[in-house]
Design goal:
By secondary structure, this protein is mainly alpha-helical. Helices cover 52% and strands 8% of the residues. The radius of gyration is 22 Å and the shape is globular.
């Protein structure tokens, strides 16, 4: 979308997770990562390991993009981290790099600002399919909304019981409240399990119900086949 809306961005190279970390390492002094590491060490009374600090910067960068956090808001809570992320943004532009999280953030920000190029591209999308919908971040959900507002049909696939990426920005409430936000949407449940026996399906469903309770969409899963053995063992451990 960005490359079609802005010719300059066609020259940008996309950084995956591994290359993004290498980028941070290669510009460690310029980005002021040492200051962030030192401040963390002062708080913990122990110097964080080098690569742990790199991972923290990566997570912070993606959190800011996924949650659409304003850097000035972040600065009120952690000035050194905000300074590093601000330098990182400037360096990425200078060196013509972009990562996937910022790519989505830029599309959303430009669309909300009624950028003609971005709106033109989004309006050309007629059908949108979103897989693993339980794992979308707030920024990704906003992009889905913007595409839908331009007239595209929307089809999402997901399972709220499999939402395991909240630590990196996903918000399971997106799928739990989907039909409230998108009026007129129909719901189709794939309740047949092709992988497990009925005994395993029953135990798994009972465990999930006990753990999540009302914080999930109700399901009545059934197994395609019932085979032996049917023994289910319960084991207790002293710790997690």
């Amino acid at each position: 979308v960005l490359s079609q809306a802005d010719a300059i961005l066609r020259q940008f190279d996309v950084l995956d997770d591994r290359r993004f970390k290498l980028y941070l390492i290669s510009r460690y002094p310029e980005l002021g990562i040492g200051a962030v590491r030192g401040e963390r060490g002062a708080r913990l009374n122990a110097q964080p390991r080098y690569f742990d600090t790199i991972d923290q910067i990566c997570r912070a960068w993606r959190f800011v993009q996924d949650e659409r956090v304003d850097i000035n808001t972040l600065r009120q809570h952690d000035a050194s981290l905000a300074d590093t992320l601000e330098r990182l943004k400037a360096c990425l532009i200078r060196d013509q790099f972009i990562d996937f999280s910022e790519m989505i953030r830029q599309v959303v920000d430009k669309a909300e600002a009624q950028n003609i190029g971005v709106i033109r591209v989004l309006s050309g999308i007629t059908d949108l399919l979103v897989d693993e919908y339980q794992d979308v971040s707030p920024c990704e959900e906003r992009l889905v909304q913007l595409i839908r507002q331009q007239g595209a049909s929307l089809f999402v696939v997901g399972d709220d019981d499999q939402a395991i990426y909240s630590f990196r920005g996903s918000d399971v409430s997106n799928i739990l409240s989907f039909q409230d936000r998108y009026q007129g949407a129909s719901n189709h449940t794939l309740s047949q399990n092709f992988r497990s026996t009925q005994a395993i399906v029953d135990v798994a469903d009972g465990f999930i119900r006990a753990e999540l309770g009302a914080q999930r969409l109700d399901k009545q899963p059934v197994a395609r086949e019932t085979k032996t053995p049917r023994q289910i063992g319960v084991h207790w451990f002293d710790n997690r």
